[in-house]
Amino acid sequence: MAAELGIRAPLLYRWARPKRQADQSKAELSAGQSVEQLEAEIRRLCEALLVSRSGYYDWKNRRSKPGPREVENTHLRERIREEFARSRQTYGSPRIAHALGCPGRRNRIARLMRKERLYARQRSKYRAAITDSRHVRTHCS
């Protein structure tokens, strides 16, 4: 099948979408290419990959709009960024989850924070400030 299409076999398995979509208008088609030829190409690729054509078109339509989890992640990312800024970049995922009122989502919040590259600043060590510049250190005996 790959030889008929003029491509290598490994590329056939990594196929995600054909070069030209079947829903293109006739004006966008290249010279000599018809809608029927594009549909035949899609049919052959689906057969080669053992995928139904209805499954392919369903997958293609799902890719065009985000799913409910992706929409929720987008809203959650905005809330995480706001809370992170409010905490002066000191809250990690457990505190952010608690502040947002969803403590069961700590790992999900940690993953979204990594994607946003939000990392909590570490507390610095306590260092005693010496104010007297003429301070002489004496040893106890």
Explain what you see.
It contains seven helices and no strands. It is an all-alpha fold. The chain starts with a helix and ends in a 26-residue tail after the last helix.
Summarize the structure.
With about 140 residues, the protein is an all-alpha fold. It has helices spanning about 1-5, 10-15, 35-50, 55-65, 70-85, 95-100, 105-115.
What does the largest sheet look like? none
Tell me the Rg in angstroms: 29 Å
Query: Could you give the distance between the termini?
Result: 91 Å
- Overall domain count: 2
Quaternary structure type: single chain
Overall pLDDT:
80
> What global shape is seen?
elongated
What is the number of helices? 7
Helix content: 40-55%
> What percent strand?
under 5%
Q: Which segments are poorly predicted (pLDDT under 50) over 5 or more consecutive residues?
A: 16-27
Order of helices and strands: HHHHHHH
Counted beta strands: 0
Structural class: mainly alpha
Defining traits:
141 residues; 7 helices; mainly alpha
Structural topology:
Layout: H1 2-5, H2 9-13, H3 35-48, H4 53-64, H5 68-86, H6 93-100, H7 106-115
Helix pairs in contact: 6-7
